[in-house]
Amino acid sequence: MSAFTDSRRMLVLLAASAILCAIVVLVVILAGLTDDSGLAWTNRDFSNYWIASRLVLEGRVQDLFQGQDIYFAHMTAAFGVDFPWHAWSYPPHFLLLIWPLGLLPYRVSMVVFLLVTLLIYLHAASLICQRRPEWPALFLLPFISCNALAAQNGFLTAALLLYGLALRDRNPVVAGFAIGILTIKPQLGILLPLFLVAEKRWLVVLSAAVMAIAMALLSVWSFGLAAWTGYIEYNWPYQTQVMNGGSGIFVSMMLSTFGALRSLGYDASVAMYTHAPVAIISLVVFVGTLFTLKSLESRAASLVFATFLMSPYSLVYDLGALVALGGLIYKDGRTSEAGRNEDQPGRIVYMLVAFLPFIGPLAALVGLPIVPLVFAAGWGVLILQDVKRARTASI
To answer: Considering the entire predicted model, what is its pTM?
Structure first.
C-alpha cells in the first residue's frame, strides 16, 4: 500500500472518529442526560455564534452592533445572570455563514457546527497532503482537540486559508473564493494580497475581491448599512480595548510578541512598541522568501509563519493551517543513507509547533510565553531546509 494511501486513510480515520464522537454526544444530548444551561456547555465561544444567529432570525441584528451592554443582555437572558463575559467581534458578513445555527437547540447546534466545520477542515488538509504522501495527519490532533474544547470557528477559518493556498495553482477561482470568505477574520489574511501579487496569481486576486465585495454587499442588503457602521463604531474599538486590557487565560492564548508581553504583565503600549520591530523584521524576511523559496508548500508555510509573527491579535485556535503545513516541513527533513534523520532538531521544533495549541497557553501561564520563539525557530528550519535542497540539487 502506498504512503499516499496511508495518509488518506489517516484522514478518513480522523473523520470517522469525529463522526463517532459527535454521534455519542448527540445521543447523550437527545437522551436528556445533560443540561444545556450548565457552563460546561454554554461557556464556549460558540455561544456567541448561536446568540447571533438567533438575533438574525428574530430580526434584531442591530443589537449585535450597538455596544457590548446591549449584546451581552441577550447572553444573560439566554444563559443566566451569572453567565461570564463574552463579546461579539465579527463583521456583519460572518452572519451570512452562521445564521442557520439558530434553527437548532443550542447543544445540537454546537455539535453540528463543530462536526461540519471539522470535516471541511479535514478535506482542506487532505488537499495539502496530496503533494506529500507521507504527511503525518496526527499533527492535527492537538489543534482539533483545542478548537473543539473552545467551540471556536478555527476549523472553518483554517480550511478557508488552506483551500486558498492549496488550490491557488490548481483551481484559482475556488482558491480566490475561499480567500474572499476569509475576510470574516481579516487578521489571518493580512499578507495574502502581497503574497498573491508576488506569485502573479491574478485570477485568485480577482476571485477573492469579487467574493469579498459580494459578501459585503449581500450583508448590507440583508442586515442594512447600519450593521457595518455599528461594527466600525462599536465592535472594532471594543475588541481593541479587549486586546489591550484583557488578562488571565485570554492573553495566554495570544500567539504574538504583543500577546507574550501582555501575558507577562506589560502595558499594552510597551507590548505594541516591542511587537512593532518584530513585525517589521518578519515582513522583510517574508518578502525575501517570496523570491528564494521554491516549492508552493514552503512559500505557503512562510506566509503563515510571517502572518502570526506580524499580527498582534491571533489565538491558539487559529493554528489549523500552520499545523497542517507544519507536517509537510516535518517530513522534509533529510535522511542519511544509513536511514538516520539528519534534521532531528528541526523535527523537534515542528513537534512543538504541532502541540502549540496546548503548550503555548500553559507556558504563558507559568511566565514562559514561548510561542513567538517557536514560530521563529520553525520558520528558520523551513528556510534552512530549502537552502539544503537547493545545494543538493546543484551538486
So the answer is: 0.90
